[in-house]
Design goal:
It is built from 7 helices and 9 strands. It has 211 residues and is α/β, with parallel strands linked by helices.
Length: 211
């Protein structure tokens, strides 16, 4: 379980959010909303330990994430606005490097199959710098098909994707949730995944409520 208690983050001399409390359990999706500048990306970066909050605590399974950095890192995957891939490497080489850094034992055949599923057949061995923005995004998102992490923190994952890729990504996220995974995401796009009975958290109101 991810638990956030009395969280506050300050940027410059402005408090982006304060008194934030919510939890996320296995098999749940939380849709993080808010206008540009409301602190969505800051919150996600705080939850994964990249930003130290001004106040409050983030707990993973009842323990502060800052007291279990390695264990929490193994259970969490964060994908931000930037794709986090090397332009001079091919798609396969990028995935191979990512797997090595994350300690994942994956064969090259598996990497090629993952990229095929992501709609990159025929582009696997091209330098990423020659790919379109949508194709670069697919290379980055391919990490989700390889991930063993329970908690996914996704910042605008549908950006630059066409409808087919958006539908496929929604199915990947939905499958992860069905298998007991946990997902917190932001998106400016209307997708069916964030409708219905899913948790909603909106930043930027006069007072942020509990979820």
């Amino acid at each position: 379980m991810l638990e956030v208690d009395n969280l506050e983050c300050i940027r410059g001399d402005r408090s982006l959010f304060a008194g934030l409390r919510f939890s996320l359990n296995a098999g749940e999706l939380l849709h993080l909303q808010g206008h540009n500048g409301s602190g969505k990306t800051t919150l996600l970066r705080t939850l994964c330990g990249l930003i130290v909050p001004s106040q409050g605590v983030v707990n993973w399974n009842g323990k502060n994430i800052r007291q279990q950095r390695e264990d929490f890192a193994a259970e969490m995957l964060f994908l931000g606005h930037l794709n986090g891939i090397k332009a001079d490497l091919t798609a396969v080489e990028n995935l191979r490097m990512i797997c090595h850094l994350e300690g994942l034992q994956v064969s090259d055949e598996d990497l090629w199959q993952v990229l095929k599923k992501m709609g990159l057949f025929g582009h696997e061995d091209l330098p990423v710098r020659v790919l379109s923005q949508g194709q670069k995004r697919r290379v980055s998102l391919a990490r989700l098909l390889l991930s063993k992490s329970q908690l996914w923190l996704l910042d605008e994952p549908f950006t630059a994707l066409d409808k087919a890729a958006i539908d496929f990504l929604q199915s990947v996220i939905a499958d992860h949730i069905k298998q007991g995974g946990m997902v917190m995401l932001t998106t400016h796009q209307d997708v069916s995944l964030t409708t219905g009975e899913v948790k909603q958290l909106r930043l930027g109101w006069k007072k942020d409520g509990d979820v």
